[in-house]
Specification:
The complex is a heterotetramer, with two copies of chain A, one copy of chain B and one copy of chain C.
Chain A: E1 6-16, E2 21-32, E3 37-41, H1 48-55, E4 63-68, H2 73-78, E5 82-85, H3 97-107, H4 112-125, H5 141-153, E6 159-163, H6 171-188, E7 191-195, H7 199-205, E8 208-213, E9 218-224, H8 239-255
Parallel strand pairs in A: 3-7, 3-8, 5-6, 6-7
Antiparallel strand pairs in A: 1-2, 1-4, 8-9
Helix pairs in contact in A: 3-4, 3-5, 4-5, 7-8
Chain B: E1 2-7, H1 17-25, H2 27-30, E2 33-38, H3 46-51, E3 57-60, H4 62-72, E4 76-83, E5 88-93, E6 108-111, H5 116-125, E7 134-137, H6 143-146, E8 152-156, H7 160-166, E9 171-175, E10 185-191, H8 192-197, H9 199-218, H10 223-226, H11 239-253, H12 264-276, H13 289-293
Parallel strand pairs in B: 1-2, 1-3, 6-7, 6-8
Antiparallel strand pairs in B: 3-10, 4-10, 5-8, 5-9
Helix pairs in contact in B: 1-9
Chain C: H1 2-26, H2 38-47, H3 52-83, H4 85-100, H5 103-113, H6 118-141, H7 145-153, H8 158-196, H9 202-210, H10 215-247, H11 262-265, H12 267-292, H13 302-311, H14 315-353, H15 355-370, H16 373-384, H17 388-412, H18 416-423, H19 429-440, H20 442-468, H21 471-481, H22 485-516
Helix pairs in contact in C: 1-15, 2-10, 3-4, 3-6, 3-8, 3-9, 4-6, 4-12, 4-22, 5-6, 5-8, 6-8, 6-20, 7-8, 8-9, 8-10, 8-17, 9-10, 10-15, 13-14, 13-22, 14-15, 14-17, 14-20, 14-21, 17-20, 18-19, 20-21, 20-22, 21-22
The chains are: A alpha/beta, B alpha/beta, C mainly alpha.
Bound molecules: adenosine-5'-triphosphate (2 copies), the ligand Cc1ncc(C[n+]2csc(CCO)c2C)c(N)n1 and magnesium ion (2 copies).
Chain lengths: 256, 294, 523, 256
């Protein structure tokens, strides 16, 4: 059933590490329709990053499969459909901020000059104007994370994966980035997959919140978020918003 | 003129004066030879160059050549010898002289590894147990001898004593030849193939070279200075050294029968001496007929 | 100002060193004057100034060409080996053979089969290839897997990862390979010049000068050679200094490499690769002889060696001599190996602890790498005698340098963030090294060890050949004089086989240790 | 004036990076009395980590000085007075979880065997029981951060520095860790210095919140937090708590 977006079909993944054998994902099935915004929330170590890495083809599932826009992960990434921000910023230390943002363009063999205004715009969007030529080693933790956010957006991806992209940001910046992300996502009609620990962030941004639980890592429930788009900052103080947040928190708590 | 390649056994020094002279004076050209001359060095094994055809003729030490013929069936012929007497000898300081094999007992003697067997033969010929002499490697530099780290070394007696005198010491030496190890040196060697196909050229080479050597020995001090900027340029050696060498080698090269000649009893002596170290040569490895045609 | 300060201390040390040298040399304090004073060397250089230009030019040509070719091959091969890991195993035997072949064994063959500049270029290139290849492989394989993941999620191929991430992050390491290659190339060219019978080149000049018993001349030649090598070294050191800062990861990569577990899962291909590793050197050996059409008397094919060693009339005596020589050589090789490694390790550590001292020591280290040992032999013999201490000295000087440079490189690549953990608890420099930097540079430590091991045997053989008159080195040299090519090839093959065995031992230990530490191996 | 705790005296720090010259700290003066809990809050890139690094002697101030328990930073760290959790977990990848926690003990030449129960207890406290022998590479982002927290506490430091130690944790775990941190801090009577982006976390934990602002990085205001100790989870729903949070947010917002 071709559907676009991202589909997890009964994905299982077990790691046999030094500590012990860990069932990181048990039979995870989830479909994120094309153009939807899905937030993944769950306790630390429940397999969120693992799910994302499998979806990106960085890790092989033991069982099951993931399709991105009805394609194998490798095909989708190669076609330039995806954008990614990892949990760890993963910047190339010898490249300046601008050059780091340009990495995906280079990989996809885009003409970098054509994208120069985009790149500049994104750098300014994440508040790094003036730091275009700085090296990652000269940035603060939050600044590095912001470079990674700009980099994830630079290819105008059809499918956007983000693993706790705002974890190291202060609340104000975080809210700003939330709003920007919503805008960009709406404009581009991309499918978004956001791993986050911020319940409010999840509720504010997502159409659907996938709540996971740990040991074994599995999907426990998917909660729909009914609020209209575009969502305004005021939503953060809406009682209905808080009620939903509480509900998510409860599920999360129960799931543990 | 027919091309003809000669491989020398060492770097350009007085050891090869006759050939330089012959080349400079056009004696080889006179014989119809377009002679090319290649200097040697530690990694140049002269016999190898004539097998591979890089040279038509080369100068060798007879022990190596005869061993190769007898043990490996190498197709070599010795058609003459530059040194009637091998200039290799035991060199020591006058202050700690070693004048005969017996003096070596209990001493340290530096010998190039390739010559160890020769030394052992000489010791045996003189009734000395080789275990009584401490033999260590010698690598071209006489400094350890001058500084007394070793008591004697095996080297060209035509050469090292000069160096030692330059360093303010005095040398004494004796030839292995004079103590029973009666071999030639810088024997003129060709392959049997060359002997067959280039006989005329070989005779021409012998004739031209003999002319060169004879003229050189008229006054051994004359020629080396003339080559300061040609043959001897940049060798790192001095002209005085070459003059000394040239003078010292004269009695070892000259022969009543003419330079390069190999008298029957000298061949016999050479074979006997080599037999002492287990190198079993025979008369047919030498071909003296070309010398007769000079 | 900071720049001034950075250079002041090492400069002072260099000047102090030269002064001590001058005094010691002038007063003939060392080995009864066998070590000349600095000014005596300079005066000698001035007196000989008309001799040098042509010699230097020849050496420059040969070593420069060899340097370019050898390093190009090294880098390209390194990239190839990392892209296709199984090829590294297949080529291992050949690689080590190239590194471990005693120059005294191959130089005559090279000067016999090649002509003109080529033997010199080949020997110079051979001196570069393995070091640079190893440095390239270690650099590429230690690059940050997080960056590779990034390229991969945009569909980048392994080749693109190589281009965008691995190569750049390996640059400092590759440059350190080039730094080691510089003296190797010069020495390789000089050794070929020394033996090959040409008239020009510093090696030829050295050969003619050796008989003069004038240490000033020998040191003059050594100093000029060192200057050539030092210039190249300096250029690459500067470059790598510029690159290293931005190549270092900002934060430590914690990912565990995927297990190189295909060994267990695919025993067949593993055995096949192993077999190829053993076969390939023999194949090349055989092809070399066939292609260059070396006469059978000189060239011994692998089968020829077996025949020589087991079935020829001389077999019995050959075996006896070989075993006796081996018995003399092997034990000291083990000790020399340990000493070389220890020395390299201590130096590498002091590069962190006393950078000023090290910068002053570097020229001395370079001299030991560029000065042909044959020129140093009289001095060494006078100082150390002809026993074990000389053998150890020679072995250390032949082995320590590549290991030291690669290891120091690895140490300099440890992310600051990691070191700061120890510093934040007031760790002493020593503690920081022990707890953080040394374990973090473990892959480099093993790469360094792999560079050392095959050379130890060579060092011992050189000492035997030049001074002690024992063992395999002596046997090899004697055989050369007697055109005993059966023995020459046998000793060469045996020393390569031994080197491969030593190397393989390190590889086994390396795999186990690095796997336990969750680090990626470069082998 | 000997006072213990941590004192910043007019600390200035300027970086001249590739991008440009950055005044990371301008004349920062702050004293955290012995046994107090100070939270540092401020926008990304305002110099929080820099201040902490200077206090630990990892970076030299251009002007001014920091004293820890009336000593030079280097002396204090060497004496084992300090505990640190960096913004980046900075685990040693070749060491197991347990061995990573033991690093400070090793540096301070403590007998590791004596501390074995402590180490085990801390590992369990951060929820990593069963992972003692795992390598950092086998852990999730949040788990790594928790190892770093355990490591910061293992020496029972007199002065505890933490740079966003809970950034990668989910909210429930974060709350748990907040409570544990309060308990440990109270028991040990240590001086705590916590860099955080969580305003609620800061208000819940700290005696005083130092609000910083960026460009140039400087201390803008110090807000006292009057709530009684020990603070209970209920405090999070207290209106007074929310009021103070709003006040901090406002200052933070204004300061930008
Ligand atoms: N390479 C690996 N080897 C062994 N175990 C692993 C590996 N990667 C992840 N795990 C285990 O899989 C589980 C899930 O890890 P994952 O990184 O997906 O968690 P997460 O949900 O992203 O957590 P966090 O919010 O803390 O980042 C964890 O228990 C972790 O220990
Ligand atoms: N080594 C360095 N070289 C140059 N600039 C630096 C360096 N370290 C930090 N900076 C600059 O100093 C400023 C403060 O950095 P710092 O890391 O202290 O910020 P921070 O408050 O911790 O931010 P965050 O919350 O994002 O971690 C930043 O603008 C950063 O770019
Ligand atoms: C001056 C001088 N020194 C060394 C040699 C080299 N060499 C040629 S033969 C031989 C002895 C071996 O039998 C040696 C050492 C030389 N030719 N002339
Ligand atoms: Mg994660
Ligand atoms: Mg910070």
């Amino acid at each position: 059933m071709p559907s676009g977006g991202i589909t997890f079909h009964g994905v299982c993944k077990t790691f046999s590490g030094r500590g012990k054998t860990i069932e990181a994902l048990r039979d995870m099935s989830l479909s994120c329709p094309s153009g939807s915004f899905t937030a993944i929330i769950g306790p630390s170590g429940c397999g969120k990053s693992t799910a994302m890495r499998i979806a990106l083809g960085l890790e092989d599932a033991d069982k099951g499969a993931v399709l991105i826009e009805d394609r194998e992960p490798q095909d989708a990434t190669r076609a330039g459909l995806t954008g990614v921000a990892f949990q760890d910023a993963a910047l190339l230390p010898w490249r300046s901020v601008r050059q780091n943002v340009e990495v995906p363009l280079e990989v996809l063999r885009k003409n970098i000059r054509d994208f120069a205004p985009d790149v500049q715009h994104l750098i300014e969007l994440v508040g790094l104007k003036g730091y275009e030529n700085a090296l990652p080693g000269e940035l603060s933790g939050g600044m590095r994370q912001r470079v990674a956010i700009a980099r994830a957006l630079v290819t105008r991806p059809r499918v956007l994966f983000m693993d706790e992209p705002f974890g190291a940001l202060d609340q104000i910046l975080r809210r700003q980035m939330n709003l920007e992300l919503q805008r960009i996502w709406q404009e581009s009609q991309a499918t978004a997959f956001l791993v986050t620990h911020g319940i409010d962030e999840a509720v504010f941004l997502a159409d659907r919140i996938a709540v996971m639980s740990a040991n074994p890592g599995r999907l426990s429930v998917v909660i729909d978020v009914p609020f209209e788009r575009p969502r305004k900052p005021e939503l953060f103080s809406d009682p209905a918003f808080h009620a939903l947040c509480d509900k998510v928190a409860e599920v999360l708590h129960g799931g543990q | 003129a027919s091309p003809f390649a000669m491989q020398a056994s060492w770097i350009n020094d007085a050891e090869f004066a006759g050939y330089f002279l012959g080349l400079d004076k056009g004696y080889y050209a006179d014989e119809g030879l377009d002679m090319s001359y290649a200097s040697g060095g530690p990694d140049v094994i002269p016999e190898s160059t004539i097998i591979t055809g890089r040279a038509d003729l080369t100068l060798t030490t007879p022990d190596t050549t005869i061993k190769a013929i007898s043990e490996q069936g190498a197709p070599f012929k010795i058609i003459g010898t530059q040194y009637q007497k091998n200039p290799i000898g035991i060199v020591s300081l006058k202050s700690n002289p070693i004048n005969k094999p017996e003096d070596l007992v209990g001493k340290t003697l530096a010998v190039p590894p390739v010559n160890v067997i020769s030394v052992e033969a000489m010791l045996k010929l003189n009734g000395i147990d080789k275990a009584d002499v401490n033999i260590v490697p010698y690598a071209y530099d006489p400094t350890p001898l001058i500084k007394g780290e070793i008591d004697a070394s095996l080297d060209f007696t035509t050469n090292v004593p000069f160096t030692i005198s330059q360093q303010g010491a005095e040398a004494t030496s004796f030839l292995l030849y004079d103590f029973g190890f009666t071999i030639f040196n810088d024997t003129v060697v060709v392959t049997e193939e060359t002997l067959k196909t280039k006989r005329k050229e070989l005779v021409g080479w012998l004739r031209a070279s003999r002319r060169g050597w004879e003229e050189n020995f008229v006054d051994p001090t004359v020629w080396p200075p003339k080559w300061a900027d040609s043959w001897f340029k940049g060798t790192g050696r001095t002209i005085e050294n070459e003059i000394y060498f040239n003078k010292a080698q004269q009695p070892l090269v000259e022969s009543p029968n003419g330079i390069f000649s190999m008298a029957e009893d000298d061949i016999e002596a050479c074979l006997t001496a080599l037999g002492q170290i287990g190198i079993n040569g025979s008369r047919d490895m030498f071909d003296t007929t070309l010398l007769e045609e000079i | 100002m900071a720049g001034n300060k950075q250079w002041a201390a090492p400069l002072r040390n260099v000047v102090a060193l030269l002064l001590v040298w001058e005094v010691v040399g002038r007063l003939d304090l060392i080995a009864d004057g066998a070590l000349p004073g600095v000014s005596e060397i300079l005066i000698g250089l001035w007196n000989d100034r008309s001799d040098y230009p042509l010699h230097v030019w020849e050496t420059l040509k040969a070593s420069g060409l060899g340097f370019v070719i050898g390093n190009l091959l090294g880098v390209v091969a390194g990239i190839f080996f990392v892209l296709i890991p199984v090829s590294l195993r297949v080529f291992r035997g050949l690689n080590i053979a190239i590194f471990a072949l005693p120059p005294i064994a191959i130089a005559p063959i090279l000067s016999l089969t090649l002509s003109g500049l080529t033997p010199r270029v080949v020997l110079a290139a051979l001196g570069c290839y393995f070091v640079t290849m190893t440095a390239t492989v270690i650099g590429l394989s230690q690059s940050d897997s997080r960056a590779a993941d990034l390229i991969r999620v945009y569909g980048g191929s392994n080749w693109l990862i190589m281009r965008m991430v691995q190569f750049r992050s390996a640059l400092p390491s590759i440059l350190s390979g080039l730094r080691v290659a510089a003296p190797n190339a010069v020495l390789g060219a000089i050794l070929a010049e020394f033996g090959g019978g040409g008239r020009w080149g510093l090696g030829a000049y050295l050969l003619g000068s050796l008989g003069r018993a004038e240490p000033e001349r020998l040191w003059g030649i050594g100093v000029v050679a060192t200057l050539i090598a030092g210039l190249a070294y300096g250029v690459f050191a500067l470059m790598s200094h510029r690159f290293v800062g931005a190549s270092r990861a900002v934060t430590m990569n914690m990912s565990v490499p995927e297990k190189a577990g295909d060994e267990q899962s695919r025993p067949l291909s593993s055995i096949l690769a192993g077999a190829m590793a053993v076969l390939l050197p023999f194949l090349f050996w055989w092809a070399f002889i066939r292609l260059l059409d070396v006469p059978a008397m000189i060239s011994k094919t692998p089968i020829g060696v077996v025949e020589y060693l087991f079935f020829s009339p001389a077999a019995q005596s050959a075996q006896e001599r070989l075993i006796a020589a081996l018995w003399e050589t092997l034990p000291i090789t083990g000790i020399g190996l340990l000493c070389g490694l220890t020395f390299a390790f201590l130096l590498a550590i002091s590069s962190r602890l006393f950078p000023g001292f090290l910068r002053a020591f570097m020229p001395v280290a370079l001299v030991t790498q560029t000065m042909p040992l044959v020129a140093l032999t009289p001095l060494l013999v006078l100082l150390l005698g002809r026993g074990t201490s000389l053998t150890l000295w020679v072995t250390i000087s032949v082995t320590f340098f590549p290991a030291f440079v690669i290891l120091a490189q690895g140490i300099s690549m440890v992310p600051r963030a990691t070191r700061e953990l120890a510093m934040a608890y007031g760790a002493s420099a020593g503690q920081e090294l022990r707890i953080i930097t040394i374990p973090a540079s473990m892959p480099y430590l093993f790469a360094a060890t792999r560079l050392t091991v095959p050379r130890a045997l060579l060092g011992v053989m050189i000492a035997e050949w030049l001074a002690t008159g024992k063992g395999l080195g002596n046997l090899l040299n004697q055989s050369r004089g007697y055109m005993d090519y059966g023995m020459i090839w046998t000793v060469a093959a045996l020393s390569v086989i031994l080197a491969v065995v030593f190397y393989q031992l390190v590889v086994v230990v390396e795999r186990r240790v690095l796997q336990r530490m969750g680090m990626s191996t470069a082998e």
